[in-house]
Sequence to fold (329 residues):
Amino acid sequence: SRNDLIYQIHPLKSLLNPFWFAEPAVLALPRRISNVWVNLKFFTKERVMSAHKVIITAAISGAEVTQEMNPAVPYTIDQYVRESKLAREAGAAIIHLHARYDDGTPTQDRERFRAIIDAIQAACPDVIIQPSTGGATGMTAEERLQLTELNPEMASLDCGTMNFGGDDIFVNTENMIIAFAARMNERGIKPELECFDKSHIDMALRLVRKGHIHPPLHFNFVLGVNGGAAGTPRDLLFLKESIPEGATFTATGIGRCQLEMNVMGMLLGGHVRVGFEDNLKYNRERNAISNAEFVERIVRIAKELNLEIATPAEARKILGMPERVNQSK
Ligand code: KMH
Ligand code: ZN
Fold:
């Protein structure tokens, strides 16, 4: 009834409802007790969720974007260091990394990754570096796995095959995902479960049940890729509601929907990814001048929402990772 709706707003008020006389008290009691329970849950669990610390990942380089599209996309090691340092100083806890040669060609070469990771770590000793095992479309599994030999503390693990625009296919068969997960388990690398669609979550959970992937689970929903789920609030909510209780998630949106997915992700109790890999433009009018500019915007919005930003040490705790600073060897 209307009265119940009004008094559901506060858990105790539902007991104090002055309209109790309107219906037999004995009949109403079970429902009123259940209202108290529902409202208490709202005031504790949901409130606590919305007061979480937000982990910001900066995906600074990507494999598909170029300096022709935005001159600030990093190619050289100095450029990687500059972008990482500015992003870290602005509040990013994680750097998601695709390697490139100085001419911009994407590569999964172990030694190029080593040089980039070592240089970033020297400049940002506490940051979590999360190299990509996705690489670029067309790369082989062995090529993509090279960087795991550097024992990074975290790496992306893509959870399904999909179209990737035009004739491109991003291949991640079930057996590939199992092999990638096994490599990460062997080396103590925390997988970031990249899901571009609902079926990718189902695949990840299937591999959890079969013992290939181990909790605590951290998902990254990458929405808005041409070939994956759309970057809409409905899709993000659907994906968020499809992961198990206790799992954490990051919200990533491609292009225009980056900011929308980030904000909605924070409202849903999640974390955010920004950066050139996903979006080059600060707004409709102009390119972003650095990855840090996106990070700064998220920090401002989070502050307005009364959310704090996680440091790398806090991010490790939230994600269930050991307390350590990663070092490539
Ligand atoms: N470059 C895309 C084909 C990842 O980093 O793990 C895949 C990708 C996913 O970016
Ligand atoms: Zn990536």
About this structure: The radius of gyration is 22 Å. Confidence is low (pLDDT under 50) at residues 1-21.
